[in-house]
UniProtKB/TrEMBL annotation, chains A, B:
PANTHER family: ASPARTATE--TRNA LIGASE, MITOCHONDRIAL, ASPARTYL/LYSYL-TRNA SYNTHETASE. Homodimer. Its main location: cytoplasm. Residues 198-201 are annotated as: Aspartate. It is found in: Cytoplasm. This is Aspartate--tRNA ligase. L-aspartate binds at E174, R220, H445, R486. The lineage of its organism: Bacteria, Pseudomonadati, Bacteroidota, Flavobacteriia, Flavobacteriales. ATP binds at R220, D221, E222, Q229, E479, G531, L532, D533, R534.
């Protein structure tokens, strides 16, 4: 062992012990007769010093050579410090070095190894191994480990079995695009990397495993939006002989356990909200309920006058911004510009100030009188001092626009507190979703989701109205998990696939094994999958996942550190019977 | 919840409780007035009965419809049995059913769902979800879960952090062939699936993570030998600021913990054996030391006569087979046939009977007298009643042949006891290995392995003699783990890559990121990786890994259940800019 102690553990009680430490040079302060070195490892920082009066000339000279990030080993005596540093756990002591070995030199790092670094995102990703030395990244990775350990131990204690499912599987157009892997041994054929272990976990239920989980990498070849990764990690779970209520209770238990153990937060029973209500009240299927600002639908109180913008709209809807009446005209204009940005896409915004004296002042006073506006305030829950923001248009679009505005304003108002946790079940999702481009319905969750009892018949007449036994777990405005009760009989699965546009032939080729399995005694079953990257980030009080992933890829799906992907050798392509067709 | 209890938990103390159970029909015994049903789930089997005197006619009729593997839900009263079954935990009770619901019917399964099934390997793999219902497979998967939980908790308690490394990386000719993944977003470029997270775990050490582990899937596109899988699982570990001794002690601790917790076996300090000694004494770098039968090298006592077969051999080597003198001539002839099979490849075998009266009788009595043979017995440790088997030829080949014979005989003699555990460290592996086909040396472990201190200089003059800081952990004749202290400076890594035939350009293209990282303060580090599939199988007392993998592939790398790999759609190939070239 190169060391007797880590850089995080020595205290005043260790005074006068001879110790050996290893680590990286965080910084050097050379006062001539005294040289101070901060030595850093994963566990902390310990101050070393070299003293002209007590050390060899050669040792002083060696110490003078030290540069930032040099890897060294030192032996010395623990001394109680005269002036203690209360900011670090080892601040009571320092080490008078008697022996120094440079284990490895270091070039000057391209950015500072400090909590607030001068390195930009690109540089940090290229030198990710240096970025990981920084506390915020290092602590995020350690935090992720703690969360996964808690998850595994909790689920294991509940009789869940972690089962590894294969990575080399079959390509199925289950939603997103698959990454594929050419098979050398099976000419002209390809494996696919799993988008999720969905079918395998269902087969494990058919196989009687009863309670399954797996923390597992999944892959989707999507055009990457910000903060998405082509490979991501799921906590994948499935249970047999359960109804939706059992799944909700079980995984509410897991989430409550994590909030308690990881964040020290006690949360009561999670509220539940119907999907339709979430859309109506928050314009969004993953509402952040840490704050109010619920939508007020204003059609009834805003379409009775001559304001054509509202009259021609499918939906007129507003929110009350707490204290928003203090916004200047300029600030409100900026807000209007914000909702008109192409990313939001509103055509404009109507507003109404709620004055302290109980009067109202709106941007559409020409059309609406004080009584009208009072009703707006009533419907949106606005109080004196608030600002009512109103959007209008096609229902789905205007809800999304107002939801974006609501989140933006909450962010600005500091209502999205990272240390406050508001979990929420959103239930009764629609089974199908209309693809506006193609006019076809596709599965909102996936093709294995069970419709609500008795609603199968609606598939033909009113496909958009069929509700599913599907649910999402939402935390602070993020979907952290989603799942459903599955279909477990061949006939229903066949009907579903037919409605999703599969020919009998395609259904058999792609999901024949699953439908066959349903004929050999499939139990009722259901499950859920959590997005681990996001769950960990949110528990860690962050909104972006990148620092919780050791080696993330950029938005082009590249690992800029190892420079992947990369061209293949000609021989490799030949062995795989492939030709590039660029 | 569909059930109040599982099929494994009811006892006499539950008598008279009304319970609801779910599960699969293991079997039905219809006695006309009484129908008995064994109901099975993951947790056990509970006996149900329907009684003409106590049940509706309709219930009796419904029960008569039940077939094997039907999924049912029953409600009824727990009764203490008149004649108890001591062979199952629930054998004291049975359930008088008052309500029966068939949750799902089942076709007759293609093989029996019993510990000893009538299904062949191929059929079991096609219907793996049924195979998993069988206790031996189900228990193996649960056992695997227990082992991984123990590993994770042990390592976490020792401050190891599990860090997920990426699956979409860069192809490097690090040993075996890579599986590759075409990138749609980066035209003409490919990711590779990791053969191991080797370079990433080293970068984590450069990044200061100090102690890393990961239970992780790895991929090798090899022509599959029996009991190999294209995807397999490793317990991958790395530590910084350590020497070989620290790694051996740490992971000896882990292995001892597993043997204790999983198998209830206490094992003393693991013996260590030099690689050279393992080859000399067992002809093998992973000796099974649960039994003796060490090699005796006979050159000195067998090359002094006119027997040209021995005189022209590089090595004459024998083993004593305990009690082998009882073999008939016919049995010995069969043994000779066995070593001459192409899989073993010996040209022949000389033998010597050690008679109870102290005399010897050999197949080469023409050349060797009793004194000669007494020396053979001395060197091989043969006692009266034993049989000495002697092979000769080129050293490496003859060692491999005799090792195969030793293992075969031990198997036949029942010396390879599955409940006996003999771990062993094999250390001081050669750094390089001669590829006899190409005449080139390649890395025996991998290109990142550190040579023993001071031996770098031998690379030019005697490359085959350079020893590495590399070690394997062997358990019962199987390599369960292997690792090394790594190179951690750019200059040494460059020398190694040069000796392995990499041009400067190739070295930079493939490992430039690692060598760059070594310039920014890389600590001394080393690690080990365990083959989880095999480790679990051996701890479970098995030699084959297949039942410890939920969904294994066959020897052509196919998943016969889902029928993968499979052809891709033309559109998918086009999107990837690929053409088949068959």
């Amino acid at each position: 062992m190169y060391r007797s102690h880590t850089c995080g553990e020595l205290r005043a009680a260790n005074t006068n012990q001879e110790v050996t430490l290893t680590g990286w040079v965080q910084g050097v302060r050379d006062k001539g007769f005294m040289i101070y070195v901060d030595l850093r490892d994963r566990y902390g920082i310990t101050q070393l010093y070299f003293d002209e009066d007590q050390s060899d000339v050669s040792l002083m000279k060696e110490a003078q050579k030290l540069g930032r990030e040099f890897v060294i080993q030192v032996t010395g005596k623990v001394q109680e410090r005269a002036s203690k540093n209360p900011n670090i756990p080892t601040g009571d002591i320092e080490i008078l070095v008697s022996k120094l070995t440079i284990l490895n030199q270091a070039l000057l790092p391209p950015f500072t190894i400090e909590d607030e670094t001068d390195g930009g995102e690109d540089l940090r990703m290229k030198y990710r191994y240096l970025d990981i030395r920084r506390n915020p990244v290092k602590e995020s990775l350690i935090f992720r480990h703690k969360v996964t350990q808690e998850v595994r131990n909790y689920l294991s204690n509940q009789d869940f079995i972690e089962v590894e499912t294969p990575y080399l599987i079959k390509s199925t157009p289950e939603g997103a695009r698959d990454f594929v892997v050419p098979s050398r041994m099976n000419e002209g054929q390809f494996y696919a990397l799993p988008q999720s272990p969905q079918t395998f976990k269902q087969l494990l239920m058919v196989g009687g495993m009863d309670k399954y989980f797996q923390i597992v990498k999944c892959f989707r070849d999507e055009d990457l939006r910000a903060d998405r990764q082509p490979e991501f990690t799921q906590i994948d779970c499935e249970m047999a002989f359960v109804e939706q209520e059992d799944i909700l209770n079980t995984f509410e238990g897991l989430t409550r356990h994590l909030l308690k153990e990881i964040n020290g937060v006690d949360v009561d029973k999670f509220p539940r909200m119907l999907y339709d209500d979430a859309m109506r009240l928050y314009g969004n299927d993953k509402p952040d309920i840490r704050f109010g600002m619920q939508f007020g639908e204003l059609n009834a109180v805003a379409q009775h006058k001559d304001f054509n913008v509202f009259n021609s709209a499918e939906l007129v809807v507003g929110i009350a911004v707490p204290g928003g009446n203090s916004y200047t005209r300029k600030e409100i204009d900026k807000l209007i510009d914000w909702v008109r940005r192409p990313q939001v896409g509103a055509l404009g915004m109507v507003y109404c100030r709620c004055n302290d004296d109980g009067s109202f002042k709106s941007s559409v006073d020409k059309f609406y009188d004080q009584d009208d506006l009072a009703k707006w305030a009533e419907v949106t829950g606005a109080k004196a001092g608030d600002l009512i923001c109103v959007l209008s248009g096609e229902t789905n679009k205007v809800r999304a626009q107002l939801s974006a505005l609501r989140m933006e304003l909450a962010e600005r108002l500091g209502l999205r507190k990272p240390d406050e946790f508001a979990p929420l079940w959103v239930i009764d999702f629609p089974l199908l979703e209309l693809d506006e481009e193609t006019g076809h319905y596709h599965a909102m969750h996936h093709p294995f989701t069970s419709p609500k009892p008795g609603q199968l018949e609606l598939l033909d007449s009113k496909p958009g109205e069929v509700k599913a036994n599907a649910y999402d777990l939402v935390l602070n405005g993020n979907e952290i998990g989603g799942g459903s009760i599955r279909i477990h009989d061949k006939a229903t699965q066949a009907i579903m696939l037919k409605h999703l546009g599969f020919s009998d032939e395609d259904a058999k080729a792609q999901f024949g094994f699953l439908m066959d399995a349903f004929e050999y005694g499939a139990p009722p079953h259901g499950g859920i999958a959590f997005g681990l990257d996001r769950l960990v980030a949110i528990l860690g009080g962050q909104e972006t996942i990148r620092d919780f992933i050791a080696f993330p890829k950029n938005n082009s799906g590249r690992d800029v550190m190892i420079d992947a992907p990369a061209p293949l050798d000609k021989e490799q392509l030949e062995e795989l019977n492939l030709k590039l067709d660029l």
